[in-house]
Specification:
- α5 crosses α9.
- A hairpin with a 6-residue loop joins β5 and β6.
- The chain is globular, with a radius of gyration of 22 Å.
- The protein has 403 residues and is of the alpha/beta class.
- The protein has a 6-stranded antiparallel β-sheet, covered by helices on one side. Strands 8-12-13-3-14-15 form a 6-stranded mixed β-sheet, sandwiched between helices.
- The two termini are 27 Å apart.
Length: 403
């Protein structure tokens, strides 16, 4: 799998640009602020319908333009597929596959897979749980594209249930003294159903990622301590360890998917126990939106204890583990088997300037043989020798093959 052509209209800083690409290694080189990251961000957007830089789409549309359009030709098994996504701030995106409109933009998910390394990855270690949850969910979409609809349904249900809780809380605190909570029962069931599927998917991912993260960390860092990941669930906290339906959320499970039915029953029980507190506070207190991916190094929390270099090594290990999960032929049955032609496009967005020489060289050696590698760098000297390939100069919104 590789991207053979990228075309942008009113995306970020580009009024219009076309970029021809090939398999192998391509380095996009140019001073900061010239649009290198915008190009790889657009490719990542085709794969995940999300930006690795901003949480919403509004910033993707060029200032003054009504919408942005991203077009990418994706080649797999020598068969090209043209994906077009129209991004309009504040409105639902529209998409086309081979010029034909599709009912929902998320129908393009699964055509392209990418694994993207970026300076923002340091927030996976040092930042808030939201970024780590997003990491798991985006990987889940690459592994099982149908999870996109589950995540979208959960977010819709969560918004509706939260609004009802706020209304109920206001009624209890107001003159009425009580609230009709019968409607809430319906949303409890929907939240439990979709939330259980998300938790099950995340638990399965953590179980598969854990040995790969440990191995990747050792390769990148020369074995400076053992890196581990576990899943911390609000469900476990709500029910207590003894009532967690034989699925300890903090322990990576075996390769089989966890029992979603048991998790659904657990969520229903937890919401029943927590309803008075939820009404009082007006928020949903249990569910995947309150969970976390816990990163440890040598038995200590990476956040707050790991050095800057160690934090970078853990962040790199998470991405390398994701890449290996998507490419190794002996992976679990529930990972979509795309075969050799489904190897993800690797994107390394300005990461080498952030790394010391040792980590830079180790990372370059580990990814150099990928089917397609896209590297961005402010100066050509930042690109390791192992990734010396075709060079494209990016300057003032223009791209040109270096001579």
């Amino acid at each position: 799998m590789y991207v053979s052509h990228l075309s942008l209209t009113d995306f970020r800083s580009y009024q219009g640009v076309d970029l021809e690409l090939e398999p192998g290694i391509t380095a996009l080189v140019g001073p900061n602020g010239q649009g290198k990251t915008n190009l790889v961000e657009a490719i990542g957007y085709v794969a995940t319908l999300a930006s690795h830089r901003v949480p919403t789409d509004a910033a993707l549309v060029r200032a003054g333009a009504p919408r942005a359009v991203v077009r990418a030709r994706v080649v797999r098994a020598d068969r090209p597929t043209l994906v077009e996504i129209e991004v309009t701030a504040g409105k639902a995106n529209r998409a086309r596959i081979n010029r034909s409109p599709v009912p929902r933009a998320r129908d393009v998910l699964g055509i392209l897979r990418t694994v993207l390394f970026a300076p923002e990855d340091l927030a996976l270690v040092k930042g808030d749980p939201d970024g780590r949850r997003r990491f798991l969910d985006e990987l889940s979409l690459l592994v099982t594209p149908r999870m996109a609809s589950v995540v979208a349904d959960y977010e819709r249900v969560l918004r509706q249930r939260s609004a009802l809780l706020k209304s109920a809380g206001a009624a209890v605190r107001g003159s009425r003294g009580s609230a009709d909570l019968r409607t809430l029962d319906v949303w409890d069931a929907k939240l439990a159903q979709t939330g259980a599927q998300i938790i099950a998917a995340r638990l399965a991912l953590v179980g598969e990622l854990q040995p790969r993260v440990a191995a990747a960390y050792e390769q990148v860092s020369s074995g400076q301590g053992e890196a581990r990941i576990t899943y911390r669930s609000s469900l476990e906290a709500a029910l207590g360890a003894d009532d967690a339906h034989d699925q300890p959320a903090g322990t990576p499970p075996a390769s089989d998917r966890p029992d979603a039915a048991a998790l659904e029953a657990g969520l229903m029980e937890a919401m029943g126990r927590l309803r008075p507190k939820e009404v009082e506070r007006g928020v949903c207190l249990v569910g995947p939106h309150r969970d976390d991916l816990v990163l440890t190094l040598g038995g200590l929390p990476a956040k707050g204890y790991a050095s800057h270099g160690e934090s970078w090594s853990i962040a790199l290990a998470l991405r390398l583990a994701s890449y290996r999960l998507l490419t190794e032929p002996d992976g679990p049955d529930w990972v979509s088997d795309w075969g050799e032609d489904g190897e993800p496009v690797l994107i390394l967005d300005d990461v080498f300037a952030e790394l010391d020489v040792r980590r830079r060289d180790r990372l370059a050696t580990l990814v150099a043989d990928a089917r397609q590698v896209l590297v961005t760098a402010a100066v050509a000297g930042d690109v390791p020798e192992q990734l010396a390939g075709r060079r494209v100069d990016v300057m003032d919104g223009r791209v040109a093959r270096a001579v």
